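User: what does the whole thing look like in 3D?
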Amino acid sequence: MFTPQNPDYQKRVHHSFAQQTITSTLSMSIDEIQPGQISLAMPFAETHTQQHGFVHAGIITTGLDNACGYAAFSLMADQYEVLTIEFKTSFLAPAQGQRFVFTGKVKKAGRTLTFVEAEAYAIADQQRTLIATMSATMMAVAQRAKGPD
Amino acid sequence: MFTPQNPDYQKRVHHSFAQQTITSTLSMSIDEIQPGQISLAMPFAETHTQQHGFVHAGIITTGLDNACGYAAFSLMADQYEVLTIEFKTSFLAPAQGQRFVFTGKVKKAGRTLTFVEAEAYAIADQQRTLIATMSATMMAVAQRAKGPD
Amino acid sequence: MFTPQNPDYQKRVHHSFAQQTITSTLSMSIDEIQPGQISLAMPFAETHTQQHGFVHAGIITTGLDNACGYAAFSLMADQYEVLTIEFKTSFLAPAQGQRFVFTGKVKKAGRTLTFVEAEAYAIADQQRTLIATMSATMMAVAQRAKGPD
Amino acid sequence: MFTPQNPDYQKRVHHSFAQQTITSTLSMSIDEIQPGQISLAMPFAETHTQQHGFVHAGIITTGLDNACGYAAFSLMADQYEVLTIEFKTSFLAPAQGQRFVFTGKVKKAGRTLTFVEAEAYAIADQQRTLIATMSATMMAVAQRAKGPD
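Assistant: Here's the predicted 3D structure for the full assembly of 596 residues, as structure tokens:
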């Protein structure tokens, strides 16, 4: 559906992902990348829960934000980095499971802004439950830029 | 401005906060609680950054979500827990600093739903910069309930 | 996918829709209703534009909100009305066309809250363009209730 | 707090506002403009209600979007127009009143993007009630541009 501007887009995504310390802290990994689409995985960890023992909404959001950001980044030209402008997350069910999957998909890729949507699933005893959705706006910024401006 | 239904609201907030493993993982602490308001703090940590070395948007969101959730929780009666229904986060500036502060404030407290807003600040070399804002909906659920329904 | 609690759900949706004066002001109509899904249509009108001559974002949002609200309402039991708690709208392309279509689809229907997504399309010279997306939270309230509480 | 790039910012806002047909359809008017801030007013009208006789959420959103858009526009240089990228609206109380007021205030003005917040109030029998809040992202685009890209 989308044509990547950079044939090496998968390599670029893996490289940027590996530079995030949060991904190794959360043992987050890339399952699959396609132009404008990505799937990430994260195991449950006792160290990232809220008061009821479920994974904290902010950690689920971390996975969703990465799914949106790297889905957008996969379509960007070489000289651009990706920055999150804003996102909304809706929590449909408790983040309860052994493993979590985050899928991101570009809705519209523009020169400056990219609109992306993502879904989070909990995997518990082989069953996959939709637990959260994200709607996000990502921005392409020239490398070394430090913020939305 | 708000009258807490539970005179022990501060104790309840501290107790629930301490049950979150994520708060100790992130070294997050409570600075101040008032009815419908809270201020949280978190130091910078190398383990929670995105690809440019700033704190990850999802971790900033974790602080904002806690600020919104516990601001709402401070007004709830004894038999209720708080659950996040949804939030939107806007990222105004990079999360760059030695320390981060998250302030939450209830806009409207209802029987079932509470609307809350929060702001995140980065403290770098004594200077405080607004880096993110959140608008959230929180829900009061009878204790031991497991989800938004 | 969803089983309506009320076999007369289509009639109920049509009845409630007809009680909105805004729908006749905007010449909005129902194209199709299924359990948890709806499609609405609206012609372009010179009276509802913003400064560049496109349909105003708030009017596109009116269609999206109705699509979300009635998709949710189609699954609710007889004694409930639907209220909008919050929504986010993303604007992907200008609202330029002869006709607009709004499709709403329930993501998760709970006892109290229903999460819904909607898309807005502009139809110009036979071509259909995705112009906006909405992510919304709807609430079931006992009839004659006047607000989210 | 903000310094307008254009000393004629008030005139520019009034001019752009007057080009919107929706503002006259809704009898919306500008109460006050300051750099990065605006206040709008709208009377109740029978023609813009939802199924319970309150003003439709989309019409309240129209006022909030204008408040955000023109608060942002007041700070932009001459060659730029303002476009709405996205917004989230939270509905705190029913839109019931004789008159409605919308106040918008810039949180952060950047070269390309401006983050804005707005509040909607219902005025009923002299009493002012906060009924809705908006968090929005606005974009500066060179004149005659037709969309977010």
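In plain terms: The first strand of chain C starts at residue 29 and ends at 34. The first helix of chain C runs from residue 9 to 19.
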